[in-house]
Amino acid sequence: MNPDEYESLPTTSVATNMTAGAIAGVMEHCVMYPLDSVKTRMQSLTHMHAQNTIVSTMRDMVRTEGLMRPFRGVMAVVAGAGPAHALYFGAYEYSKETISRFSDRDQINYMVSAALATLVHDAISNPADVVKQRLQMYNSPYRSIMHCASKVYRTEGLRAFYRSYSTQLVMNIPYSAIQFPTYEFFQKLLNKDNKYNPPVHMVAGGAAGAAASALTTPLDVCKTLLNTQEDGAGKTRGLIEAAKKIYRTAGPLGFFRGLQARVLYQMPATAICWSTYEFFKYILTQGARPLAWGINSSSSSSSGSSSSSSSETVVVSSADKIQKDDKKLPDLRYVLPVSAAAAAEASSLIVRSGTSSSGGGERETGRRELPAMSGAGIYGAMSYNTMHSNDANHITDHHLRRSN
């Protein structure tokens, strides 16, 4: 498949979008998780007055708590990010496709689709964020993910896992409403041919993540307080109360604590997320295209120097439906599609069966064999086999040939 065929593929498959989204979400959070731990520490009430930087916070974490401390709680993200991002991208692509049938205003379409996707995503990710951020805090009393989840449930109830849900929606809906249109804007600006272009996906994703994270940092600081409950379990019950406590503790600048860490986390994380998502969407969509398999049956007989042969070629779709002539195929063998020149060369190496003679005759040895191919030849053959279309409008004599 050529890159310029990327946008013509059936990319609206919900399963494809969800699978690609799940992989992208896990990759995004795992790779950049240490910076997320630093951001949470810097947004903590106990660090509001400290003049900590990203480097100093990371250094202190490693020096006092161990080398792996910045990764503590990462498995909570793995458990939550997979299904959350699967629904996130699946809902976004489905909504975008559906809304486009009724409206041609792209930017409004992207914003509405992003908001709908966020509603679903946060319902799954919020409990995982509560566990993750409590494990990230300094002197966290929790030994593991299960210990944290069970203790929070026993002492604070199920409500504790969704205490910041409304705040997270208030933050993530504008975050997504900024991120997705920004990504689509840079896609159209830098990728005018709508080709699969990894560098463009990475640049567009990074720019979208940086813009969205910077503008929503104050809400993220409030969310951190609601999730961690530093001032006592259940004492901070909503966005307004969290905002008041942050203002009393550190003033207006308190709402921007961890801004640099958040941007440095979200920019590469979003670039990784979008690049991974587009890559796996491309790969999975390519794999869903019908494949053409050449299946030859041959029988030959000769008398003296003359011989006759018949061959049939059929096409097998991805649903394994075989269309063939009435003649029975006695010997079905997989044949790599090769160029016309290679096919001509291969025909000279075919060992025919059924006759044996001396001089110009042919000798009986059994069955058809394939010629040896170099690495480049095999790559070209396999690439051609997995990438050409099975559409009848595109089938030519080069693909299907019948010789009598």
From TrEMBL:
Question: Known InterPro entries for this protein?
Answer: MCP_dom_sf (IPR023395), MCP_transmembrane (IPR018108)
Q: Does the keyword Transmembrane helix apply?
A: yes
Share an example GO biological-process annotation for this protein. iron import into the mitochondrion
Q: Which UniProt keywords apply?
A: Ion transport, Iron, Iron transport, Membrane, Mitochondrion, Mitochondrion inner membrane, Transmembrane, Transmembrane helix, Transport
Q: Which GO terms describe its molecular function?
A: ferrous iron transmembrane transporter activity
Return the Basic and acidic residues bias intervals.
Answer: 361-370
Which residue intervals correspond to the Solcar repeats? 12-98, 105-189, 196-283
What Pfam families does this protein map onto?
Answer: Mito_carr
> What are the subcellular locations of this protein?
Mitochondrion inner membrane
Annotated region (Disordered) at: 352-372
Provide the membrane topology annotation.
Answer: Multi-pass membrane protein
Q: Which GO terms describe its cellular component?
A: mitochondrial inner membrane
Query: Which family is it part of?
Result: Belongs to the mitochondrial carrier (TC 2.A.29) family.
State the protein's name.
Putative mitochondrial carrier protein mrs3/4
Q: Which organism is it from?
A: Psorophora albipes
